[in-house]
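User: I'm putting together a small comparison set for a docking exercise, and I want a reference complex before I start. The sequence is below, and the ligand is phosphoenolpyruvate. Could you produce the 3D structure with the ligand included, as structure tokens?
Assistant: Of course. I'll restate your input first, then give the structure tokens for the complex.
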Amino acid sequence: MNSTEMKDISTMKQKPYRLVGWDTKLEKTVVKVGDVEIGGDELTIIAGPCAVESHEQVMTIAAGVSQLGIKLFRGGAYKPRTSPYSFQGLGLNGLKMLAEVRDVFGLRIVTEAVSIETIDLVEEYADVIQIGARNMHNFDLLRRAGQARKPVLLKRGMCATLEEFIFAAEYILIEGNSDVILCERGIRTFNDHTRNTLDLAVVPAVRDISHLPIIVDPSHAAGDYKKVIPLACASVGAGTDGIIVEVHHQPEKALSDGPQALSFAMLSRMIDQVNQIASIVRQDVVTLAT
Ligand code: PEP
Ligand code: MN
């Protein structure tokens, strides 16, 4: 082995994550979406339904969350469902409804791209491109998201280690897109009292090795609306930069993930509680990370 090869190997050892790690950047990344700064001083809240189901549904929920002061709206137009017989999303029509939500309420849109075939449309219509847990290992899709001119919300795969999660983000940064928001959404364990086990320790663990913002999705971890607010509060205590949460005006009629959807009243309670906790811990999170 010559000295250049040896140097390559030792550099790799020191900096396994070349772009996502602290070695290449001294300050925490702040991702700007409209006038919202994810990873900045304020805790960010993203809320909306699991899926865009109809014009009436999406406009009603957008009105409700917007009244509560939320600025970022979530909702899937393309849904990666376990069963091929389940509702798969409204596709392009759904994206057009989300664009209307932005026009009418000024909400910025977070929506999922499930494939290389659909990411062009998602990039055109969304403000933030979500890559879901099931696609965290889809390296072609990650590279394509890295070529996008919109921020990417990257969810942790349900069986991914921290290292695999961070390397997935590296795939996006390496293509030139450094606006990446990581998202913990629960992992598979032997526990069966929640849909997934929320791994809150990953929040400070990410801070240790990466400058990227990390948010938490308590909805897909809980799988049950009753557990969402406690998990959201705990996430803020653990230092998350934000919460992404599912909301529905008629959860019993939702076409996907109804059991974990918060009502507007519950969302309002969640916002009050997480903001109180943020006022205690947030400054520390921001100072210690930089
Ligand atoms: C979602 O956000 O609706 C979703 C499908 O999430 P995940 O990829 O985390 O399962
Ligand atoms: Mn969902």
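The first strand starts at residue 31 and ends at 33. The chain has one domain: 21-289.
User: Thanks, that's exactly what I needed.
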